[in-house]
Write a structure and sequence with these properties.
8-stranded mixed β-sheet, alpha/beta, 2 domains, Rossmann fold, 20 strands, DNA/pantothenate-metab_flavo_C, Flavoprotein, elongated, 22% strand, 11 helices, 30% helix
Length: 414
């Protein structure tokens, strides 16, 4: 445990109930958070704050049973709004004057799911959901339910109800299944699902391939050659596109950062596997965009040694040969793919970097994200440039900023 000298925390510009923003994918969206009687309801205040961190305005609705596991004070504190626990003359379940963009039932119990399916409206939650289904039919709102219950309750009745609700257009989120239960997924995954559900981005439904991380080449069964890149930026790009609703697939080299559980990700433990995955994906799915940020190995040993090379002098020299350039093969075999490639340089000027990027464009690639190791922002942020034909280079700052700028550029292209 780190020693503490008992100094107070530094001052913050945030008020007590304010939250720092992670993003703006729910900016301007009103979310009804419907909380039912499951022990998982204790996480509802934290979920409300996570939704707000993407810019959402959150109003909590609770059943009487839900208040056995969470409290009015914690929900009001976390949402900054009064909690709706009963229906009044204001007809809170209709929300006609201040409509919701999405209704999120988390946790969603066996009782609530089945009542929703059969149109039973006998309380705050079920009456609100009855109205929400009508708004869904009219294209005025979205509904996401997160089933949470013991495995013995996951019976044929529940399955039939979930199938019927899905048929009506209700989004059903896959629970985290463990220890014989349908558990609440991690909160960030729920926020991502809500963001995708309400997204109006032109990228919604567009298939996009992203690659990132190192692509190690083995020397023997134990040792490998790799690089220091971790794939952080590729994960940020994938997250940004995923939240906008794109059908994005990440291929990530091992030995770097770990992708969040909610992102579609295939791991590439070696350069050969990376190359195989890229080609397989492009052959199977008609991707519109390919974003190639992986730090692909340039060289590999001429010979792969079986087993483990004995310690000592056996590895004093190692003959390396160039690897095949996978992006060149992709460019040749998939001419309709809009390819965004990355170029990292050191010990070059900005002008030289731009010239290198222009040379890459001249080789038939659509856009280049170029950066120099020496150029960083005031706070050490990565600085990169989007370079494409007929446009002036666009500076992008910080990994999150780079990811947002790439998303904006792809939206313009769509």
């Amino acid at each position: 445990m780190k020693p503490w000298n008992f100094t107070p925390p530094p001052a913050s510009e945030l008020g007590d109930r304010q939250v720092p923003l992670h993003g703006t994918h729910l900016q301007g969206k009103r979310i009804a958070l419907l909380i039912t009687g499951s022990i998982a309801a204790l996480k509802a205040p934290l979920l409300a704050r996570e939704l707000r961190r993407e810019g959402a305005e959150v109003i909590a609705f609770t059943s009487t049973e839900a208040l056995r596991y969470t409290t009015l004070d914690s929900l009001e504190w976390s949402t900054t709004h009064p909690v709706i626990t009963k229906l009044t003359a204001a007809a809170e379940h209709l929300s006609d004057e201040d409509p919701f963009d999405a209704y999120v039932v988390a946790p969603a119990t066996y009782n609530t799911i089945n009542k929703m399916r059969y149109g039973i409206a006998d309380g705050v939650i079920t009456s609100t959901l009855a109205s929400a289904l009508g708004k869904l039919e009219q294209g005025q709102a979205k509904i996401l339910i997160v089933p949470t219950m013991h495995g013995s309750l996951h019976n044929q009745i529940l399955t039939a109800s979930l199938q019927q609700l899905q048929c009506w257009g209700v989004e059903i989120m896959t629970p985290k299944q463990a220890y014989g239960k349908d558990n609440l997924p991690d909160l960030r995954s729920i926020v991502a699902a809500v963001s995708r559900l309400v997204s109006s981005s032109p990228l919604k439904g567009i298939p996009i391939l992203v690659t990132g991380g190192p692509t190690p080449v083995p020397i023997d069964n134990i040792r490998r050659i790799t690089n220091r890149f971790r794939g952080t930026l590729s994960i940020k790009i994938t997250e940004e596109l995923y939240l906008r609703g794109a059908e994005v697939q990440l291929i990530l080299g091992t030995g770097g950062d770990i992708s969040p559980a909610h992102l579609p990700c295939k791991m590439a433990p070696t350069y050969d596997r990376y190359s195989q995955l890229v080609l397989e994906q492009l052959q199977e799915i008609p991707y519109v965009f390919g974003i190639f940020s992986a730090a692909v190995a340039d060289y590999q040993p001429e010979q792969l040694f079986a087993g483990k090379i004995p310690s000592g002098g056996a590895m004093q020299s190692l003959k390396l040969v160039p690897t095949a350039k996978i992006i060149e093969r992709v460019r040749a075999e998939f001419p309709d793919l809009y390819m965004v490639t990355f170029k990292y340089q050191e010990q070059v000027s900005h002008e030289e970097l731009m010239n290198i990027a222009q040379e890459r464009l001249g080789q038939g690639y659509n856009a280049v994200v170029a950066n120099r190791g020496e150029e960083m922002g005031e706070n050490g942020e990565q600085v990169a440039y989007w370079v494409s034909e007929n446009d002036a280079p666009e500076q992008m700052m910080g990994k999150e900023g780079i990811a947002r700028a790439i998303g904006d550029r792809l939206e313009e292209l769509i």
